[in-house]
Design goal:
- The chain has 280 residues and is an all-alpha fold.
- It has one domain: Tetracycline Repressor, domain 2, CATH 1.10.357.
- It is 75% helix and 0% strand.
- The chain has 11 helices and no strands.
- Helix 2 runs antiparallel to helix 3 and helix 7 runs antiparallel to helix 8.
- The longest helix is centred in the middle third of the chain and has 31 residues.
- The protein is globular, with a radius of gyration of 19 Å.
- The termini are far apart.
Amino acid sequence: MPYLRLIKWRLSLAVAFSATAGFFLVNGELSYHALICFLGVFLLSGGAAGINQLQERKIDLLMDRTAHRPLPSQNLKLPEAIIFTCLCIISGSILLFRLNWIPALLALVNILIYNVLYTPLKRVTIYAIIPGGLVGAIPPMIGWTAAGGSLLHPSIIFLASLMFLWQIPHFWLLVIRYGKDYEKAGLQTISQYLDENQIKRLVFFWILISSVFLASYPIFQIHINIVVGILMFVLNIIFILAFYWYLFRNKDPKYIKPAFILTNIFLTVILLMLIINSLL
């Protein structure tokens, strides 16, 4: 369905899930408010994705990866996309305002960072990855404040930092896979300065940093059930070893796709375990 592809529904679900993890760190119980938070963030994330596709519809047409999207493929007319995007943003904002003005404000600020700062910067500098990483770090903060948590609490600083760290290798893996496509569209990428092997080493180094940081959760006042803690530690080791194999030992030239999927699965499992730990 073109409307679902316009709002990048899979990505928007992932963003809403990370916000829900932040919510449960404060309030470890299933509630109506958690559902409102999830839906609100999903709609606002979808609205931001819709704005992004409106902004980049001409660039998307130049890349094989994005030429099939609703606007460049003309499966969706421009006025329809604008109206649907506005509806997502308005409805998502209303839902979050019902919980608290702070998460609603954070969500709107995140849209500004994504669409006003990050999206134009991609054409100018490889350092656009920094505001891009910040965009991924804010959703858990939205969930946290929606549940009444303070933004100065160490626990949410930990979760937001973890999300930021994860974004970086996530971006670089996409660059390895689609670097030529990005360059064809005039986007600035790290592949213009480093070769594939150098980027792989950089990605693995960043994965190690993220994994070490994950193990530091006790410092940030996050109390983990001993069983959940052991599982997280074991999964962390398995993830590092599996990622090393995909990057440096696997001879399949299509190694990037499973490595990319592995990073997404790992983060999803960690967030799910944090949610489960909060519910115990």
